[in-house]
Structure formats: structure tokens, C-alpha cells
Amino acid sequence: MKIVNVVMVAIGVTGALLTGLVSCQSVAEEKAPPAKTAPEEEFVFVDTTAMPEGKYGDAVRYGRELMLNTAYYIGPEGKNGKYLGNKMNCTNCHQDAGTKPFSFNLIATHSNYPQYRAREGKVLTLAERVNNCVMRPHNGKPLPLNGREMAAFLSYFRWINSFAPKGHFAGEKSLSVELPDVAADPKKGDALYASHCARCHGNNGEGQMRFDNVTYTYPPLWGSFAYQPGSSMHRVIMQAKWLKANMPFDKATHDKPFLTDQEALDIAAFVNNDEIHTRPGVTKYDYPNKEEKAIDYDKAPFADTFSVAQHKFGPFKPIIEDWKQKGLKPSY
Fold first, then answer.
1. pLDDT tens track for 99-114
2. What does the pLDDT look like over 174-204, one tens digit per residue?
3. Domain residues for 150?
């Protein structure tokens, strides 16, 4: 009986201690402030069945049509005007009419302009930015600022912007790529292009023209009917970010890229290798202030002593470090 009593006392003491510890822990947990975590950015999905009615709704719908069928409406043989110099569509780069995540997404565009643009060295309105795309990737002439097409583009951008949350959202910017210690390799990119890209874009980068000859099923990547030098796609890092999330179109997703970062850079280097591929002629290049020039923009003058080839293909890390040491902010 004594032994049992001792055991019971021991158990009672131990239980009291545990209860006390748990009680103290509970108080401590109650008093401790909750850990702050950054809110997770959410994806934005545009409901195309919810377009407004009336004249404004008509403009929104036409703006979306212009994004999807640019060449049909305002291409070289356009139904409503002849403004483009090629038969590509805006949605070739801004996929799903500018609403696809990580594909040069345009949902926030209306709220982001006017904004300062280093490429032009001045503040641009959204209408001016639209014309930049018409003139560079499309190698065309500017739309009238007071015309129906410009009003439609702006109406559409305003409408899709209504779905955007306050602050940033997932897919607003491109995916990032890890920059290697070596230069992007056009020769390796050539082999990768043959394996993954030529089936759609052609062995010679000519793309695949649609049966009606109005536009492309798959756009050209170089040649006289492709995007100009100076276009965002003509920059190796910029194109690699886009490729990582979107290509090959039937294999890659933003959360499961098909290409490695190095492969995306190598393909972009091959596609944009001006020594072997021609593009529409350009007499004037951008970035009037060299201290604001994107580091993968390969047209001199530069704010450093690195070569044209290194600005074109890399390695980019030494350029980035040099700029930071000078107190400059490298953009890419």
C-alpha cells in the first residue's frame, strides 16, 4: 500500500508539473504575437463573358479582337487600316490577348501609365506605348492617337485592369532566370532550336503562314517579317524569361518549365544572333541615356567598358557587378 501511495504521489506531482508546463506554454503562445508573413500573390483571371454593354463595351470587344487578330484588322492588308509592316498579332507575345500570366501580361498596364521609359528617355502615355509596339515588333507606322483602333486598345486595357487587385499579382512580370557564369551560346541554341522550335517556327525562322495568308499560325522569329532590333524580344535575357514560362507551347507551363534557364538563354542567343539572322532595317536605336540602358541591349554607347558581344550574350554577372559598384542600377 505504501508503494502504491508513493507511485500515486509521484504520478500526481508529475502530472501537476506537466499541467503547469503546458499551462505556461499556452500563456506564452497566447501572448506571443503572430508571425507576419508576406501575403501570397494571387493569379488574375479575366472573365471575357462579363464585358460591358453599350458603346464602351463595343470598344472593349474590338480592342480584344485587335489583340488577337491584329494583322487581319490593321496589318499590311488590313480590313480597317494598313499600319503594320508584318502579319504578326499582338497575342503572339502578349498571349491570351495580354491576360496570360508570365507572358508579357498587360492586365496592370492601364494603371501603370503614364510612366518613365528608359528606352525612350521620357515619360510615355499608354497610347504612345501602344504605338511603340506597332512600330517595333510589328515594324509599322503609328496609329492615330484619336482613331478608333487606339480608343479600342485603351478601352480594352482599362477593362482588363478592372480585374487587377491593389498591389501586385502573380504572373504580372516575367519569370526570372538564373544568370550563369558563362555566356549564352548561340551554337548550343541552334541545336536546341532544331529539337524544340523548328517544328512550328520553321528551319529558317520563317514561321508558318495560316492557310488564308492573313497572319501566322506560328510567327517568324527572324527575317524581314519578324520583330525589329530594339524590340524587347531582341534582348537575350528578356526573351529567355519569356521562353522559360511559355515554350514549347505544348510542353511548358510557368510552374513546370520545359527548358532550363541555360537552354532558354542559349535559344534566345541563337534566335537573336544578328551575325547569321537578318531583321528589318533600323537606323535609329533607343536608350538616349547610357546609364539607363538595359545590360542585354547590345547597341553602344555603354556605361561600362564591356564589349558589344558581352552585352549581347553575356556573361552578364560581371556587368551587373560593375554597375552596382558604380552606384548604377542594372536593368534586365
1. 999 999 999 999 999 9
2. 999 999 999 999 999 999 999 999 999 999 9
3. 48-161
Question: Exposed, middle or buried: residue 278 (CB in 10 Å: 0-12, 13-18, 19+)?
Answer: exposed
Residues contacting residue 324 through CB under 8 Å, at least 6 positions apart: 330
**Cβ contacts of 98 within 8 Å, gap of 6 or more:** 67, 90, 91, 104, 105, 106, 107, 109, 157, 160
**Per-residue burial over 184-195, b = 16 or more CB atoms within 10 Å of its CB, e = otherwise:** bbbebbbebbee
In a domain, 260, yes or no: yes
In a domain, 89, yes or no: yes
Per the structure, the count of domains in the chain is 2
**Grid cell locating 63:** 480592342
Q: What is the CATH number of the domain that holds 288?
A: 1.10.760.10
The CA-based dihedral angle spanning residues 278, 117, 124, 159, taken in that order and rounded to the nearest 10 degrees: 90
* The pLDDT of residue 5 is above 70: no
